[in-house]
Amino acid sequence: MRGTEADVRPSRASEGPSVDRDDASAAFFDAAARQRLAVRRCIGGDGLFAPEVERCPRCGGALGWIDVSGHAQLVSWAVVHRSPHPAFAELVPFVTAVVELDEGPWLHARLVVDDASRLEPGLALAVAFAQPPGGESVPYFVVATGGVRRP
Ligand SMILES: [Zn+2]
Fold first, then answer.
1. How far is the CA of 63 from the centre of ligand 1 (A)?
2. How many angstroms separate the alpha carbon of residue 60 from the centre of ligand 1?
3. Single pTM value for the model
């Protein structure tokens, strides 16, 4: 369930460079097209891992995919003032963040906020999806209603 639509600013949400899928990321982008965030799950165990993980770090086994809630908390962030690529030039300054999903895995993602000076560790976040023209639906995070859940 996503209760943060009011926090999403469509003018920013639609921005960003387009991203193309490959075989390894196809299931991730299929989920994103359904407005769902997917992470890796150990097929032989119960561990959940970030989308870019290719083999289970615990047992070495194969990984499947599972949709998660999209709820997270802020771990760390940086405000990017100088565009790392021409495709990001109109986005600067923007916030890049490490977030901890409620289900455990940590993700690197863009965080769309009005005022980066008000960010703090533990801030409750929710996933949203950008739809760059011609590319895949791409998750980013926004501040959820409810504020800080853990100090
Ligand atoms: Zn495993």
1. 8
2. 6
3. 0.84
- The answer, yes or no, to whether residue 74 has pLDDT greater than 60, is yes
What are the CA-CA distances from residue 48 to residues 21, 55, 83, 101, 125 (Å)? 21, 11, 32, 10, 19
Report every protein residue that has its C-beta within 5 angstroms of ion ligand 1: 42, 45, 56, 58-59, 61
Is 37 domain-assigned?
yes
pLDDT of 151 higher than 50 = no
Residue 2 lies in a domain: no
- Full residue range of the structural domain in which residue 90 is found: 21-143
State mean pLDDT over 121-136: 91
Look at residue 149 and tell me if it is in a domain: no
Query: What domain count does the chain have?
Result: 1
CB 62, CB 56: distance < 8 Å: yes
In a domain, 11, yes or no: no
* Ligand 1 centre distance from Cα of residue 49 (Å): 10
